[in-house]
Amino acid sequence: MTKTLIKNAETIITMAGEDVLGGDILIEGGVIRAVGTDLEASGAEVIEARGCVVTPGLVNTHHHLFQTLTKAVPGGQDALLFGWLQTLYPIWARFGPDEMRVSTLLGLSELALSGCTTSSDHLYLFPNGARLDDTIWAAGEVELRFHPTRGSMSIGESAGGLPPDHLVEAEAAILEDCIRVIDAFHDPAPGSMVRVGVAPCSPFSVSRDLMRDAAVLARDKGVRLHTHLAENDEDIAYSLEKFGCRPGQYAEDLGWTGDDVWHAHCVKLDAQEIDLFARSRTGVAHCPCSNCRLGSGIAPVRAMRDAGVRVGLGVDGSASNDMANLIGEARQAMLLQRVQGGADKMAAREALEIATVGGAEVLGRDDIGRLKPGMRADIAVWDVRGIESAGSWDAAAMLLAGPTRVRDLFVEGRRIVRAGEMATLDLEATMAEGRRLVSGLMG
Q1: How far apart are the C-alpha atoms of 86 and 79, rounded to whole Å?
Q2: Rounded to whole angstroms, how far apart are CA atoms 208 and 249?
Q3: Which residue in 264, 162, 152, 281 sits closest to 209, CA to CA?
Q4: Which of 9, 187, 221, 399 is the most exposed place for a label (fewest CB within 10 A)?
């Protein structure tokens, strides 16, 4: 069985107790076997980590990977959420399997280079023969741990919804395909590389019936539920007008609270909704950069955490963030809570905890997020000898003065990033393919 020994790290941030200074990590069979100092292992590949901080791999709890090919689109750069969507829908309608595959390869590579070892994805439109399968196969090429969710839209413009009619699906077909992809790909075992979720897009793009039926289906299949909720003021107004209640009540009424549910954004949750989420163990994917980019507001993360709500981080789609850098997302989360409530409202260590342990909990994983024996070997190695950390007194305070690109990244004990470059695919060739597809979309 292959062994790898990471040696002499300046600091190992275990997220499982005390940091280890001058520490080592022994990996065997995709699992962490030991964390300590002066470890030895006969026949192991030794990875020298002097001058590096080692953390658990970061966990991304919300993304729309297909959007990687629509960054910085004119007309959408300065729009609010609904206007931004209406600008992008016609472009996404021209996507097919190739666009889905390449956008996933690029998006997951971008995440990996920022220290991410596990990513969810929310794919809610399937034009021109595209399927969730296209993204799952691409994730297998990159070798990141993947939580794809089978999203959906069923209420088009003619029925009062936001998406154009040609991008919505019949609800029976949606549920049938959810069953198909769960049966084909979902793996609930410890160390699983693929876990499928069910994810109607949002309350303004699917019916009450589909939300309710999706929850029943997911629980019958033993998979998790995901959607957007309470993202901005428009979202709240829509819920009050169409449903006569706030988003939290809408979610509870339809079975969308519980420890198998996580909602994206939740910028506008009020105190009662925060209490509901805490009591029901409902998770939240906090997307600070996207919320800033779309002017949605600052999510009440401090209040959520204090109440006991499980919170993870999400980069959100590349068309509403433009950069999928998860370590940068953690820094932004820390800064926003500070600018809203004061410099003592979130420490760098807490933001890193949200990016690791928090994300693992939101996705229902108890096998990742910490560095201790028995956990899966999802590990990020950060070189803190660069200019970003020059002059720093505390190498472990990475979010205050640290790199935004990982040196080495291990997923299930396999090295996915080596010396700051992707090791699992030809990234230059993939980027060239992406440029070709973007040119076709522009035409």
Answers
A1: 10
A2: 13
A3: 152
A4: 187
Shared domain for 298 and 287, answered yes or no, is: yes
Phi and psi angles of residue 375, each rounded to the nearest 5 degrees, phi first: -80, 155
Q: Which residues does 269 contact at the CB level (< 8 Å), separation at least 6?
A: 230, 247, 248, 277, 299, 300, 304
Pair (30, 150) in one structural domain: no
Q: Are 127 and 92 in contact (CB under 8 A)?
A: yes
Token pair 């819920």 in the structure block, residue: 239
Reading the block at residue 195, the tokens are: 């876990």
Phi-psi region of 235 (alpha: psi -120 to 50; beta: other; left: phi over 0): alpha
Total domains in the fold of the chain: 2
d(C-alpha 53, C-alpha 72), whole Å: 33
Task: With respect to residue 64, please indicate whether it lies within any of the assigned structural domains.
Answer: yes
Residues 48 and 88 in one domain: no
DSSP symbols for 111-129: HHHTTEEEEEEEE---GGG
Token pair recorded at residue 329: 């997302």
**What token pair was written down for 252?**
């509870």
Look at residue 259 and tell me if it is in a domain: yes
Residues 344 and 246 placed together within one structural domain of the fold? yes
Task: Go through the chain and tell me how many residues it has.
Answer: 443
Angle, alpha carbons 69-73-77 (nearest 5°):
130
- d(CA 442, CA 91) in angstroms, rounded, equals 8
Q: Are 328 and 227 in contact (CB under 8 A)?
A: no
Q: Are residues 407 and 308 in the same domain?
A: no
Q: What totals of helices (H) and strands (E) does the chain contain, helices first?
A: 15, 17
Tell me which of 234 and 179 has the higher pLDDT.
179
User: Which pair of tokens denotes residue 180?
Assistant: 């198909």
Q: Which residues contact 292 (CB under 8 A, 6 or more apart)?
A: 332, 336
CB proximity list for 169: less than 8 A, separation 6 or greater = 126, 152, 153, 154
Q: For residue 333, give both structure tokens.
A: 């989360």
Q: What is the C-alpha separation between 135 and 131, in angstroms, rounded?
A: 8
Q: Is the pTM of this model over 0.90?
A: yes
Integer angstrom CA distances of residue 212 from 198, 222, 225, 255, 256: 12, 15, 11, 6, 8
Residue partners of 403: CB distance under 8 A and separation at least 6: 327, 382, 383, 384, 386, 388, 389
Nearest residue to 434 via CA among 107, 89, 4: 107
pLDDT digits (tens, 9 = 90+) for 225-247: 999 999 999 999 999 999 999 99
What are the tens digits of pLDDT across the range 329-388?
999 999 999 999 999 999 999 999 999 999 999 999 999 999 999 999 999 999 999 999
